Amino acid sequence: MKDEKPSILVVEDEPKMRRLLELQLREEGFHARTAPDAETGLQLLNKEPCDLIVTDFKLPGMSGLEFLQAAKRIDAHLPVVIMTAYATVESAVDAMKAGASDYVLKP
After folding, report:
1. What is the pLDDT of residue 62?
2. What pLDDT, on a 0 to 100 scale, did the predictor assign at position 55?
3. Do 55 and 63 touch, CB atoms closer than 8 A?
4. What does the alpha-carbon distance between residue 73 and residue 32 come to, in Å, rounded to a whole number?
């Protein structure tokens, strides 16, 4: 039986942060895929399912919140973690209401 690594999709528009997350997740034993925006993230998700999504709240084009809602339409049970450097109570509540599994501050 093949031992599959859990797959994580990282959607982050900042190239250095995206690469850092990708390297860290791979080092921890995950299969990490990345996308620079929500639209690309949805294309990847439609091609190959994943076990978890980590997405930035503020993205160019479609926001992280809109991406979360679109991802949940593809797989309602898919856990999604929203990251942000600009946290507000309102944005955290909106994310959780939309189905986010967690909401974390970026370092």
Report:
1. 95
2. 96
3. no
4. 22
Cα 33 from Cα 50, distance rounded (Å): 9
Show pLDDT as tens, one digit a residue, over the chain (107 residues). Answer: 455 899 999 999 999 999 999 999 999 999 999 999 999 999 999 999 999 999 999 999 999 999 999 999 999 999 999 998 887 888 888 888 999 999 888 87
66 within 8 A of 73, measured Cβ to Cβ: no
Amino acid residing at 56? D
- Contact criterion met (CB below 8 Å) for 78 and 53: yes
Spatial distance between the Cα atoms of 103 and 57, rounded to a whole number of angstroms: 9
Q: Give the per-residue SS3 of 36-64.
A: CCHHHHHHHHHHCCCCEEEEECCCCCCCH
Return the H-helix or E-strand segment holding 80: strand 80-84
Query: Can you say whether residue 62 is alpha, beta or left, with left for phi > 0 and alpha for psi between -120 and 50 degrees?
Result: beta
In 3D, which of 7, 12, 10, 2 has the Cα closest to residue 59? Answer: 12
